[in-house]
Amino acid sequence: MNKTSQTAITFARLRDVFLDKIVAHMSNPRVAEHMPLLTDKWTRPTAAAFVAAKEACWQRDGLGHWAFLQDGKYVGWGGFQKEGTEWDFGLVLEPDHFGLGTRITKMAIEFAFADARIPFITFLLPPTRKKLGALERIGAKFVENIDYEGAGFLKYRLDTE
Q1: Could you tell me if 120 and 87 are in contact, meaning their C-beta atoms sit under 8 angstroms apart?
Q2: Are 68 and 76 in contact (CB under 8 A)?
Q3: Phi, psi (rounded to 5 degrees) for 23
């Protein structure tokens, strides 16, 4: 068994993470490679505005993005955000923790299957993401190529009912 599978993964609120952790994470060039909307430099005020926007989703929809913790240490963020009538799932991990993506996604999908508010999940992936087999293995189906805020994405859908 590898070290990654032996560690505890928990979900917390982004407001409970030091802003400097989020700034460092979102300033990493390896993170930006697959985030076409990540064009501005991240600063403490940028991170504070980001956290406030994600907290507003929690207030408005009762659900939003989490901070992901491995043994209590921040490794990334993601979760569900309502886009119109759809619940979109996003995941942004620190490069040293990319290997946790499958495990965290599985935990989040289990959450979605247990939550009656989420009849299906959408995933918007940049075209730079070439390894999409994991999505197909969990039953997600390609829907279409879309433009979101001026950038192209591949849209997938997973029914949860």
Answers
A1: yes
A2: yes
A3: -60, -50
Name the pLDDT band for 36 (thresholds 50, 70, 90). low
CATH number for the domain including 17?
3.40.630.30
Number of domain units in the chain: 1
Amino acid at 96: D
CA dihedral for 1, 105, 7, 38, sign (positive or negative): positive
Are the C-beta atoms of residues 121 and 157 closer than 8 Å to each other? yes
Range of the domain at 48: 3-118
Q: Give the CA distances from residue 123 to residues 77, 88, 144, in Å, rounded to whole numbers and listed in that order.
A: 15, 6, 11
What one-letter code names the amino acid at 6? Answer: Q
- pTM score: 0.88
> Average pLDDT of the chain?
89
**CA dihedral angle for residue 67, residue 69, residue 73, residue 77, rounded to 10 degrees:** -30
Tell me which residue of 97, 90, 12, 25 sits closest to 55, measured CA to CA: 12
Q: At residue 93, does pLDDT exceed 50? A: yes
